[in-house]
Give the backbone structure.
Amino acid sequence: MEIIKYPSREEWPLLLTRPALNVSMLFDTVRPVLNEVRAEGDAAVRRYEEKFDNVTLSDLQVSEEEINEAKNLVSDELQQAIRTAKGNIEKFHASQRFTGQKVETTTGVTCWQKAVAIEKVGLYIPGGTAPLFSTVLMLAVPARIAGCKEVVLCTPPDKDGRVHPAILFAAEVAGVNKIFKIGGIQAIAAMAYGTESVPKVYKIFGPGNQYVTAAKQLVSLKDVAIDMPAGPSEVEVIADEKANPDFIAADFLSQAEHGVDSQAILVTTSEYIVDKVVRAIEDQLEKLSRKEITEKSLSHSRIIVLDNEQEVIDFTNQYAPEHLIIQMENYSDVAEKVENAGSVFMGAYTPESAGDYASGTNHTLPTNGYAKAYSGVNLDSFIKKITFQEITSEGIRNLGGAIQTMAANELLDAHRNAVTVRLKTL
């Protein structure tokens, strides 16, 4: 782990880099899989499940029997935790409902918007090194609140052709319509194009490895919308000399254990806490079950000491972290100055893992600096807004002249005439 003290602003661009691979390099690998699934449907999906997930499947869809069986395999404690998280996620996202207002822009001219759910959405839930049942809640709960009619979920099965019971339980609790045992590129292709078993959806959500990310980017060019560009998970912690080193280390490691390409950064104005944080990281690391993964992540993580608070804020807004934790005495003041971040965790007792699981906010967030332009998943992600307008005879009389003048100056005579023929009847 690098420790950089008082770098000049000219050195910042290098410190802002992530360990992410340019996924466009994977397009030539991903494209043939997409094309074969589009052409051959379920047959291609089964072939690639055998190749990539080492499993031979007779049925791609999870059965009702498997879903019911999963309930008995999930402990009562975890079931209750999932329901608690679901309730908080539901409460927070329900508060985001759009209420359109009719606006009279000119006398006789009324305009408004209506929020309409995207009818069919697809959710991708990675299997990989950990069953991300929490992501099921983060995506399916707002989809249901929005009113999406069909919510389809794809997730890779294990070598026995089974999906982790916690994923199945969370999917049922959250109201998913159909669950499929499909992972990777082939899952994205199946949802983007549709197969004999998998319905075509209009928008795909969810994280994944670099191949999944590349597949999402390719299908989004013309076939389906996606939630956002995505990369490896990341956290930035801002801390002052009064911050608790054990808390900082815990937050650092909780992000680093996501994967070998995850990144954690501590930015501080206090040299005093650096050694304390390093020791706390070393102590806590020894107790982690995912120590090997976490160590690899720490190899491209950093502690950066800057001159003053303004530099910390400027660096943060340039880095645009997926997760930003502010452990400073004046954390509210600092938070007000944050312009680029996916999700902000304020104060010593607000760990990033709260947002990952159960506080109610969404953990599907922009990474790799995309927080400069993208929001995390929210209720609006599952909604499209349709605009309406209604013009009375008085309205077209009041506004018609402006429309005619503008159309004439753009040399669009038919546009001008659409108003003229109406004005002649008044």
Q: What stands out?
A: The chain has a mean pLDDT of 95. Residues 401 and 419 are 8 Å apart (CA to CA).
